[in-house]
Amino acid sequence: MTHDELVQEIAEALAESGEYVREMEWGSTQHMVDLHWCAHRAGRRLGMKVRVRVVEAPTLHRTDHWERVMMTVAARPADLRVPLP
User: Range of 13's domain?
Assistant: First the structure.
């Protein structure tokens, strides 16, 4: 999936339900940065701020590193905006 396709997928979910949730394989750190960028770009496309949360997804076996993650992108309420210094 290209970045543009992911931005579109996230934007559609945000517009429909206010949230985008996806379980995925842990990629490289750059991959996670790209996912955050796509989430914020989707929010900008809709004129909203978003909050991105990535947590370890439940697995059947415990390891020393994350294998799967759950990414949640949600519209951020306007009253939670923090002014930049």
Answer: 3-78
For the whole model, what pTM was predicted?
0.78
Question: Phi/psi of residue 38, each to 5°?
Answer: -60, -40
- Tell me the three state secondary structure of residue 69: strand
Give the C-alpha separation, 22 to 42, whole Å. Answer: 15
Tell me which residue has tokens 């996670």: 32
* pLDDT at site 85: 44
CATH at 34? 3.30.110.20
Longest dimension (CA), the chain: 43
Q: pLDDT at position 79, please?
A: 47
